[in-house]
Design brief:
α2 links the parallel β3 and β4. α1 crosses α2. The strands form two sheets. The protein has a seven-stranded mixed beta sheet with strand order 1-8-7-6-3-4-5, with helices on both faces. A three-stranded antiparallel beta sheet has the order 2-10-9. The two termini are about 35 Å apart. The chain has a domain of about 140 residues: Rossmann fold. It has four helices and ten strands; from the N terminus they run ββαβαβββαββββα. It is an alpha/beta fold and about 230 residues long. Belongs to the purine/pyrimidine phosphoribosyltransferase family. Its main location: cytoplasm. Its EC number is 2.4.2.8. Its cofactor is Mg(2+).
Length: about 230
C-alpha cells in the first residue's frame, strides 16, 4: 500500500446522498435504508477507470488476484471482468489467476465486551490463507470491498508478505475517513467515504443487504431489524 492514490472519488461528510425514490431496490428493504450514497452505474464507471489504471501499471505482468470475501466479491468480479476486457483490446495483457480468502473481524463479542453489530473486533482470522506458498515470487493484487482503520488490511499484508511475493498491490472500492486510521491507503481506491455504515454491492449487515446493487446508508431501524 502507498501513502498516496490516484485521485479517488471523495464523498463529503455532509453529503446527504440520493433519495431512495430515484432508484429501484428490493422492496423487502423498505424502511431499512436512509439513502443511496453511490449508485450502481457510478460504481461501474469508477471500476472501469480503476481497471485502466491497473492495466497501465501492471500490463504484461502475470498477477495473482486475492479476492477478500465476502464483501469484496462483487467488486473483484467486476474489476477482473473489466481488466479482461481491456486486455483483449490492448497491446498490454495481464494473465490473471484468482484466489479467494476470507477475513473474519466482525464477530460476536463476549458479554464482558459488548459491541454493537456495526463495530469490528480487534481479532482477525484469515480463512483460506493458511498456505499461500504459491505466491512466492508472484505479483499479487489484493482486492477488498471496504477499508476502515486499515488494521485488518495491514494484518493481511503482513501475512501475505511472509510468503515472499515479488510485488503486492491493493485495490479497495471504498476507504472510510476514520480517526486513528493507518497512514497507508490502497494503491487503487474507488471512493473515499464518510465514516458511516454502508451496505450493498456485496457489503452486508449481518449477512443482509448483499443483494443491493447500490451502496447505501443503513437506517437505524434497519440496524435494529437485522441485529443479532
Amino acid at each position: 500500500m502507498t501513502n498516496a492514490n490516484i485521485h479517488p472519488g471523495s464523498i463529503n461528510d455532509d453529503w446527504p446522498g440520493y433519495s431512495l425514490d430515484l432508484f429501484n431496490y428490493p422492496t423487502h428493504y423498505s424502511g431499512d435504508l436512509d439513502c443511496v450514497i453511490i449508485p450502481h452505474g457510478v460504481i461501474m464507471d469508477r471500476t472501469e477507470r480503476l481497471a485502466r489504471n491497473i492495466m497501465d501499471d501492471l500490463g504484461d505482468h502475470d498477477i495473482v488476484v486475492l479476492c477478500v470475501l465476502k464483501g469484496g466479491y462483487q467488486f473483484c468480479a467486476d474489476l477482473v471482468e473489466r481488466i479482461k476486457a481491456l486486455s483483449r483490446n490492448s497491446n498490454h495483457t495481464i494473465p490473471m489467476r484468482v484466489h479467494f480468502i476470507r477475513l473474519r473481524s466482525y464477530l460476536v463479542s463476549p458479554p464482558s465486551r459488548p459491541l454493537s453489530n456495526d463495530q469490528s473486533t480487534e481479532d482477525l482470522h484469515i480463512l483460506g490463507a493458511e498456505d499461500l506458498s504459491f505466491l512466492a515470487g508472484k505479483n499479487v493484487l489484493i482486492v477488498e470491498g471496504i477499508v476502515g482503520t486499515g488494521k485488518t488490511m495491514e494484518t493481511l499484508l503482513q501475512h501475505v508478505k511472509a510468503f515472499k511475493p515479488k510485488m503486492i498491490k491493493v485495490a479497495g472500492l471504498l476507504v472510510k475517513r476514520v480517526q486513528h486510521s493507518l497512514a497507508s491507503v490502497p494503491d487503487y481506491v474507488g471512493f473515499e467515504i464518510p465514516n458511516r455504515f454502508v451496505v450493498g454491492y456485496a457489503l452486508d449487515y449481518n449477512e443482509y443487504f448483499r443483494d443491493l446493487n447500490h451502496i447505501c446508508i443503513i437506517s437505524e431501524s434497519g440496524k435494529k431489524k437485522y441485529k443479532v
